[in-house]
Amino acid sequence: MATLNVTISEELTLNGADRGSTNTLAVASVTQVYHRIVTCPASVDTTIATFQTATNTSDNAMDIDDAKYLRVTNLGTQLVNLSLQVAGGEDGTPNMSTTLLLAAGRSFVMGAVNDGIALSDANANIVAALTDLESILIDPVGNAVTVEVFIAS
C-alpha cells in the first residue's frame, strides 16, 4: 500500500499582500491507480470513468468502494462540459446528472465516489442523503478535446 500526497497551491499578491495558500492532503492505503490521457472526439460524449461494486459488470469499471480520490484536468484550450452521472441506488444506472463547465487548464477534484454526491432539483436545501457517482462523461462542446483522468483507489 502507498500514500498519495496531493498539494494544491495558489500564489497571489494583491495590493502588496500575499493572499496565496498551500493545502496538502495525504490519501492513505492506495493500492491501485487509474491514470489516463483521453482525447474526446468533437461533438461526441465520451465516458472517461465508470464506477460499480462489481467491476466485471461494466467495461473498464472501477470498484466504487475503493475509489478515494479523483481528478479530471482539461489539458486542451477549449471549454468542456464535465457531466457527473449519479445513481440513486447501489449499482444502479444513473438517473440524475449535473454538468460543470471545465475551462482550459482547470481541474475537477473529488474524494470518495461511494455515497459521495447528492443532487436535488426540488429546492435549494442541503441534501444529506448522499448517493453514488456512477460515471463521468465529457461533452467536448463541438471541438475535440484532451483530458487527464487520475483516480486513486
Q: Care to describe what's here?
A:
- 21% of the residues are buried.
- The chain is 0% helix and 53% strand.
- The termini are close together.
- The strands form four sheets. The protein has a five-stranded mixed β-sheet, with no helix packed on it. It has a four-stranded antiparallel β-sheet with strand order 5-13-8-11, with no helix packed on it.
- The chain has 153 residues and is mostly beta strands.
- The radius of gyration is 17 Å and the shape is globular.
- The protein contains no helices and 13 strands.
Task: Enumerate the strands of the largest sheet in spatial order, edge to edge or round the barrel.
Answer: 7-6-12-9-10
User: Any idea what the radius of gyration is?
Assistant: 17 Å
The beta-strand count equals 13
Distance between the termini: 10 Å
Helix and strand element order: EEEEEEEEEEEEE
> What percentage of residues falls in helices of 4 or more residues?
under 10%
* Number of contiguous helices: 0
Biggest sheet statistics: 5 strands, mixed
Q: Could you report the average pLDDT, rounded to the nearest whole number? A: 91
Q: Classify the beta-strand content into a percent band.
A: over 45%
Structural class: mainly beta
Shape: globular
Give the uncertain stretches in residue-range form.
none
